[in-house]
Amino acid sequence: MLDAKTIEIIKSTVPVLEVHGQTITKNFYQTMFKNHPELLNVFNHANQRQGKQPTALANAVYAAAAHIDRLEEILPVVRGIAQKHRALGIQPEHYPIVGQNLLAAIKTVLGDAATDEILDAWGKAYGVIADVFISVEAEMYRETEEKKGGWRGFRRFVVERKVPESDVITSFYLKPEDGNEIASYAPGQYITVRVKPEGQEYTHLRHYSLSTAPGQPYYRISVKREDAAEDRPAGIVSTYLHNRIGEGDVLELSAPAGDFTLDQTQSLPLVLLSGGVGLTPMVSMLETVLQSGAKREVVYIHAARSGKYHAMQEHIAEHAQTHGNLSSYTVYETPESGESSDKTGYIDLPWLKTVATADSDFYFCGPVPFMKAIRRALKEWGVPDERIHFEFFGPADSLEDTLN
Question: Which residues take part in binding NADP(+) (predicted)?
Answer without folding.
Answer: 276-281
